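Lecture notes, structural biology module. Today: joint structure prediction for complexes of two components.
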Amino acid sequence: MSGSEFVPLSLTPLLIGVFAAVACALPGNFLLLRRQALIGDAISHVVLPGIVVAFLLTGVIAAGPMMFGAAGAAVVAVVLIELIRRLGRIEPGAAMGVVFTTMFAGGVLLLEQTDTSSVHLDVEHALYGNLESLIWLDATGWASLVDPVALSYLPPELSRMALTLLGVLVFVTLFWRPLKISTFDEGFARTLGIRTNMLGLALVITAAIAAVAAFDAVGSIIVIAMFICPPAAARMMSNRLEGQVGWSVVFAVVSAVLGYVLAGYGPLWLGASDAVSAAGMIATVSGVLLAVAARFGPCRLRSGAPAGV
Amino acid sequence: MLFDALLLQLGYNATLVAIGATLLGVSAGITGTFLFLRKRALVSDAVSHATLPGVGIAFLVMVALGGDGRNLAGLLLGSAISAGIGLWCLNWLTRNTRLAEDAAIGAVLSVFFGFGIVILTVIQTLGVGRQAGLEGFLLGSTAGMLWNDALVIAGGGAAALLLIVLMRRPMTMVAFDPEYAAARGISVSRIDMAMMGLVMAVTVVGLKIVGLILIVALLIIPAVTARFWTERSDLVVLLAGVAGGVAAYVGAALSASAPNLPTGPIIVLVSFALFALSLLFAPNRGVLAAVLRHIRFQRQVHLRQGLLAVAQEQLIYEPLTLRLLRRHGLLRADGVPTEKGRARAAKALRDEHRWALVRSDQSHEAAAAMYDGLRDIETVLTADQIREIDNLIGGPKEVSA
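The predicted structure, tokenised, for the full assembly:
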């Protein structure tokens, strides 16, 4: 395919998908090892009421208030889960289930009660986003990549997602050592003077920021899948955290690229005329990768080290 | 209008929905209890999300065979099969790989849901034109429910209830103590599988009413709610069933009473309201009860310390202690102890001396372990024992005014 078609139509969604996938997979590694894998699931459910409330308060669909609303909802959810867990002495899984379903139900109800016919805000959009629509119409080919006029019309989601990825990268690099120690041995981390509670909270907040930014661009289904599937598949490939994080990035990128391509062009190859949901396809590809890793990965078994090491 | 709805006076469709929802709520509440006690509440989330590809594929198959793609029984069968596959994947991942259960839940949930979305978009692009009903499975849609649909839901709910009645004893045992159950010759894995089968049944039946995203709430929230009220497993099960049924019934009625009130979310919110009430006001485990318990304890401590201070003629500055002593008529407004106050103070100090002796005596070790600064010594030792101790201390001494 020529650049004049690829650059405007596919380059930006592809990049956004890759950035979102990596931004979610990085914190996902630590959440997975800390047995908090479902936090991504909870956050992506509670984002909906946050966005609806932000819309009701401001009356506009704009990125800023939406992100604030979503982040606020994520914080409220984390606090509520902790509160219910402590006050009611309920196991964390059930407390999480109570909170995120209720907040999601509240979001759906609010959405139904308000008149959103004039704006683009509905549950389906929140669930599986609209990656395909994030196109860069002002591009004419590869040359546009160095054309400042065309570049200024890039979809804003791209720069936002790139910024988020950068933030996640900075967080993980800066706190690599404390994160690693506190993930594997919290008691030891505390004796070293690492404030594990604060670090855990910071990790969850980083994950929430990544989730909210990715949600805005690609919908919640990719967020959940990317938090869990690439790190889980990577866990089957390596016994070292460095290796696991590296593999998870590879898996996330492969899922995003392959998923997008399969969704956009797969049906055409099969003779159908229309594309299928890219978000769904990316999640599916990540699942296939996980299945392959779980079946053949060198470190898939619980006992740990592969034979001969 | 709401009253009419609650009394099933809003017409044929609303009545059908209310009855179906209530049956579903009862069986979901009861099934969810076993899941909750087994600490696997979120497995149901994976199961419910895993139904989506099945719904889509069943639709495609039925259309390909020339039938009506929206046949509810066919769609539910498809959803049951894909939920079963999802469950199998989940179990395989937890058993045969190093992944923890929460990661397996998340993986199954997101991948199956994503694949389901892919199939939904395939159906949309096929231009069959009659697919509108399928999106309803995400959040439930009860408008225009048919007699046949209601029959399927009622039948499914009743079957699930019957299975629960048959299996309640082994399921209770496995939920509380799997090792013991295994020692009694119960196959834990088989009971677990049956439990998951029930979850699947409830999920599939609930797809039409509350939708696959929110069905997990019906399984978790009533069970958690019921747990606040009792420590007995059979009562928890019963109460969860009642809570689920009431929430579903009231929710269905509410949603029928006004426009733009989607059934599924309303049921979940009513359910959460019941949960919040329980969290706050349940006896013993509720927040209010805990606060009251704390206040009572605080008062006991202050009163006791105040009496000891009076007995030793120390000045009391602590406002709560002063207030409590005055309210009990032990202290006059000017801070001078009353007759009764002096007597109580003397008794408190004497008890403290008695306790000191008890705690220094090895032979009273068991009794000394009960000392917490508040317990009356009479509740621990017999009158004879106390008399012996009193002989060691000597006779009562007068407290100067």
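Point to remember: Residues 3-33 of chain A form the longest helix (31 residues).
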